[in-house]
Structures are given as C-alpha cells and as structure tokens.
Design a protein that fits this description.
InterPro entries: LSM_dom_sf, MS_channel_1st, MS_channel_C, MscS-like_channel, MscS_beta-dom_sf, MscS_channel_2nd, MscS_channel_C_sf, MscS_channel_TM-2. The chain is of the alpha+beta class and 425 residues long. The chain is built from 14 helices and ten strands. α5 packs across α8. The longest helix is centred in the middle third of the chain and has 30 residues. It starts with a helix and ends in a 29-residue tail after the last helix. The relative contact order is 0.05.
C-alpha cells in the first residue's frame, strides 16, 4: 500500500504529469460546473436571478480558462488557447449583460432591436480585431482620420469614444430613471398626475445630466456649447416651435392635473379615456379600441370636456316626444320607471322627467339620469334607455308622433284645374 502511494506522489513530482492531471481535473470540474444551475441566485428572482441565469456560464468558462492558462504556465507550457477562450467567454458575458441592460432601460420596439444588433456587432468586431492582432493598427488608423479646428484636433476615434461613453451613460440614466419611476408610481398617497409629472421630470433630468457628463468625460468643452445652444434656440423658435410647444404643454398638463391617466375626456370628435400622458402627446382610447394620439398643445388651446375631472358622476339627458292625444304625466312616470330600472343609473340623485315644451309635432319630454362610470360608454346607455322607453310606451299605448308639416299653396300653375274633370262653365 505504501509503495502505491509513493508511486502516486512520484507522478505529481513531474511538472508535465502534474499539468496533465491538472488539465483533467479542470475539465471534470468545468463539466460539473457548467451542468449546474445557480439555484440560490435563480431562486432569488428579480434582476439578480436574471443576471445569474445569463452570466454564470460565461463567467465559469472565464474562470476555468484562466486557471488552465495558469496551470500550463507553471508547467512550462504556455499556450494562447485558454486566453483566447477567456476573451471569447468574457465577450459573450459582456454582450449578454449589455443586452439585458438595454431591455431593462428601453421600451420594446424597432429602436431596441437596432440597438441590440449594433451592440452585439461592435463587441464581436472588437474581439475579432483583438484575436487577430489588428486592434492596435485599427486604433491607429481611426486616430489618423482627423480634422483640425485651430488648435483642436478631432479624430474618428474621438467620435467613436464619445458615442460609446455617452451611450453607456444614457443607458445608465435610463435604468436609474426606470427604477425611480417605479418607486414614484408606487407612492399611493400622491395623486397619479403628480406621480407621472415627477417621473417624467426625473427621466428628462437624468438623460440631460448623462449627456452633459459624457461630453465632459471625453474632453468636450461645455462652454463651447453656448453657440450651439443659441443656434438650437433659433431652431426651436422657427422649425421646432410646435415640438417645443407640445413638450412644454405636456409638463403643464401633468403638473396642473387637469388631465390624468384614467380620465374620460372629449376633444373634438374624440371620446375615450386617457391611457397615457407622454412628453409630446396624450393617448386616448375609445370604446372601439381605437387609440388617438392628441398633441398636448391641442389640449391646452382647445376646449376639453373632462367627464371625470372632480368625480365620475355624469348626468345624461334623453329627449323624447309624445303625442298631444296622450297623457304627458303618465309618460313622465314611465320615463322615471325606465331610468330606475337600468343597472348603471344611480339611485341618488334619482332619475327625473321634465316637460320641456310643446313642439310642432308633440309634447317634448326629457329623462335625466346620473351615472358614475362614463368610461364604460355614454352613447350605449342612451341607446339602452331609448329602447326601454319605446317598449314602455308601446305597452301603455303612448304614441311617439311623426313629424307634422303644413303645406300652404299660395298659387297654382296656369291652366291647372285639378283632377275633377273639365272646368265648369
């Protein structure tokens, strides 16, 4: 037994054999590690679990590749293979991390898809240049393509650096604004209008700060932006006037709480409830499922009917006529019964009927009822009440009159004698 152990230890005294056994052990450990799942991190849920699911395999490959490179170096067999594997795995982890952050910080859509393809392409292009040994020459080439403005030299490499730094800071600002927006929107003691306003202001402020800080980091003198700011002001005064007006009107709507998400409004021919308040427009969804984008400026300058501004109680008027041969009192009682029998009509204030006047064709009556759910529709309840009024009048023998018109003949054509035959002598 002792001789067997001695032979085993003798094997590990040879660096080459030790390196071989170390490679075998690393392969076994790597296979075991890659088949395992990060149970605790994944069970944690949320962003921690999502990141663990995306990054643990590339991270394990990087760790194993570095250990293999160190073992080969100690054995006197340095090899570039493990290092290349570590670079590829680290690049895969970077791509997964940035794509995850993009999806967390941006809304789904074509812009997000374009960003994902761009980020993946740039990272893999840099990795390919590094592995081929062309990264240094490519950097020198980009730095050589430059323009000079007096004492200032600006190269294509500087432009790419600015784009990358500003994009990363904008991504961080988007993530932070999303986090703060969720915290603000969860504050139930604050009204929805104030919450939306604070969230929009926070997002705009963070994006602006990220842009300014990014430009300052890459060496752009912010004082030189004064001329650009003046030109931008002139542009806003002319070409961007409507855009700036809609943007400012959006903040006014949010802060004065005249229109809030969930309100039922009528603007011109558009009727529905407010689904979203955006920086440039308001989304109004009708009962037909059609979403109308109304510019914020129109809501400031035009007349807006807000059916639920202070509360959602709304009074509806349903006009109807009855014949002069019928009893208007009985017809008014039937109107009140119809109003009380509808499930959407409020008991207080109670439905009432009014005699509004005596028209050319009949007696003009009006049913007045209150509802507290205008978001469920207004015209549909009018239609339902009219149908019930028709049924009640038919059951009681009350007539809804036809329009009556009197025809007065002031003169007859020459030679016209009617249909009774020849004219008398």
């Amino acid at each position: 037994m002792g001789e067997v152990l001695a032979d085993a230890f003798e094997v590990f005294r040879d660096p080459r054999r030790a390196a071989q056994w170390g490679a075998v052990l690393l392969a076994l450990a790597g296979g075991w590690l890659l088949t395992r799942k990060p149970g605790r991190l994944h069970a944690a849920g949320g962003w921690v679990g999502d990141l663990a699911e995306r990054l643990w395999r590339p991270g394990a490959i990087v760790l194993l590749a570095l250990l293999a490179a160190a073992a080969l170096a100690l054995a006197g067999w340095p090899h570039a293979g493990p290092q290349m594997l570590a670079v590829l795995a680290a690049s895969l982890a970077a791509v997964r991390l940035l794509l995850y952050l993009l999806r967390r910080g941006m809304n789904p859509g074509p812009l997000l898809d374009a960003f994902e393809h761009t980020v993946s392409g740039v990272i893999w292009a840099v990795v390919a240049l590094y592995l081929l040994g062309w990264l240094g020459p490519a950097r020198d080439l980009l730095d050589g393509l430059a323009l000079s403005f007096g004492e200032t030299r600006f190269s294509l490499l500087d432009l790419l650096t600015i784009v990358v730094v500003v994009a990363l800071l904008l991504l961080a600002a988007g993530l932070l604004s999303r986090l703060l927006e969720r915290r603000v929107m969860a504050a139930g003691e604050v009204s929805i209008g104030v919450r939306v306003g604070v969230a929009k202001v926070l997002r705009f402020t963070l994006v602006l700060l990220a842009l300014l800080v990014g430009l300052n980091i890459v060496g752009v003198n912010l004082t030189s932006l004064a001329v650009f700011s003046g030109a931008l002001g002139v542009g806003i005064g002319f070409g961007l006037q409507r855009i700036a007006s809609n943007f400012i009107s959006g903040f006014i709507l949010i802060m004065d709480r005249s229109i809030r998400p969930g309100d039922v409004i009528t603007v011109g021919d558009s009727f529905g409830w407010v689904k979203e308040l955006n920086a440039r427009y308001v989304v109004v969804r009708s009962r037909d499922g059609v979403e109308t984008l109304i510019p914020n400026e129109n809501l400031i300058t035009s007349e807006v009917i807000n059916w639920s501004y202070s509360d959602k109680a709304v009074r509806l008027k349903v006009p109807v006529q009855v014949s002069y041969d019928d009893d208007p009192i009985r017809a008014m009682d039937l109107l009140v019964e119809v109003g009380r029998g509808h499930p959407r009509v409020e008991d207080a204030p109670a439905p009432v009927a009014r005699l509004m006047g005596f028209g050319d064709s009949g007696i003009e009556l009006e049913l007045r009822v209150w509802i507290d759910d205008p978001q469920e529709g207004v015209n549909n309840i009018r239609s339902e009440l009219n149908v019930e009024i028709w049924k009640a009048f038919k059951r009681e023998g009350i007539t809804i009159p036809y329009p009556q018109r009197d025809l007065h003949l002031r003169s007859l054509p020459a030679g016209w004698h009617g249909h009774a035959g020849p004219a008398p002598d």
